[in-house]
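Bug report (template v2)

What were you trying to do?
Predict the complex of my protein with zinc ion.

What happened?
Run completed; filing so the output is reviewed.

Input:
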Amino acid sequence: MSAAIQMDETCMNVEKPHLGRPAGRRRPRKTNVPDASSPGSKKGWTHKLSRKAMYITVAVVVAAAAFLAVAIANANRPSLYAVTIDGELVGYTDNKDLVAEIVWRLSEEESFRVGAEAIPSCEVDCQKVKWEKDLEVTDPDQLGEILKERIGFVASGYVICVNGQDVVALCSEEAARGALDDLRQSYINSIVKPGHATVEEVLIKEKIDIVEQEVPTSLFRSKQEAVEILSRGTDKMLSYVVQRGDSLWTIAMANNMTVEDLRKANPNIEGDLIREGDNLNLIVPDPYVTLQSREIVTYTVSIPYSTQVTYDPSMWPWQEEVIQAGKSGEKEVVEEIVRENGEEVSRTKISEKILSYPVTKKIVRGSKQVPEMGSGELAWPVQGTITSRFGPRWGTYHRGVDIGAPHGTPVIAADSGMVIFAGWNGGYGNLVKIAHGSNMQTWYAHLSEFAVSTGQEVKKGDVIGYVGSTGRSTGPHLHFEVHVDGVAKDPLSFYK
Ligand SMILES: [Zn+2]
């Protein structure tokens, strides 16, 4: 690219014009008064003048007058110049210095705008032409406008090259380096939550060069613009203003995009929410650079405690004593996380340090066997009618029988035994479990009230509680289960 302004020597390098008055105009006067300066000779000036001398004087005056007339005519008709840009005619001027001045002023303005010395990238020329009838001098203001519009400039710029490809030009090396620093910093800000991690380094994976070269000034970008171009992957901007009735889908379709792309281009969209008048970006970011970060993350992890159970044959199985409370430990884990453009690509454990060891929970649990207490023949636990039988029911398994009875109806122990549980148990509501020995148990659920407590011995027929609708129940009834060796059996099979 040629940077030089090449102008006609005669056009640009002339000295200041003499306001249209040719230099030769003074000459006749000079030649006309050589003797007048001689004092003392004034007195006899006319007497001593010979006839011949007088003729010569008259001839000289006449010649001078003629010369003057031509000179005045020339002054009224100054030289005309055709102004061309790269050979293309753009106007006429009679003041070629004005053209040089305009070009100089435009160069200064452009230099100021881009922050680097701008020089025209085209050839502005003034060629003397002969006056012809139709030719007119272009209005100087208009000529200025034409030159401003038509003259391009180049300046020495600093181009950020990514893998050898010119991406963006800035006015100084400092600005170019600053743009790369800002890019890294904005990346760090985007990935790191305060106090969570320290970023060890941020690299740009691609090969980056800053190359000084001549660049059209129209391609110069500010530091901020350069950061955006590098991270968006283009300096194109294309946006769309949301109209009434639009959806992400209709906008995407109309612009040959997918909804996913539209979301990528507008990460600030939450859900499907767009409003009339919103400005959506239609350029999907495809960054020129891959920012790779290495973070060191330190966090603490809880170490769960274990439970150690010892058995005491003097205690019932539902009795338990905690001899040592458990306590979780804590460890500090240090990891290295590598991300590329925000996406985690690897995570490596660097170290692990135990800050505190967990304390084992120690408990003593009873192992005393419930004695043989049942007769093996069960009494019906409540007065009422069976509303639901044992077995598969509504896609689940009904583990007992339901006996409908009014709220508050007494519920009795189906056989003698020990109350091993009397309390709340989720869907069962208020539940009583009685162990009868021989690994047999009976369960009474949805009770409104208890008449026994855990550990109590009961005789067959003793009231243990009252019908209710606690837990997962749709009305007052007793849910009754019979377990043998830990398995629920059909209660009706125990009644012959
Ligand atoms: Zn039931």
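What did the reviewer find?
The chain has five domains: 21-76, 80-151, 160-281, 294-366, 385-494. The two ends are 110 Å apart (CA to CA).
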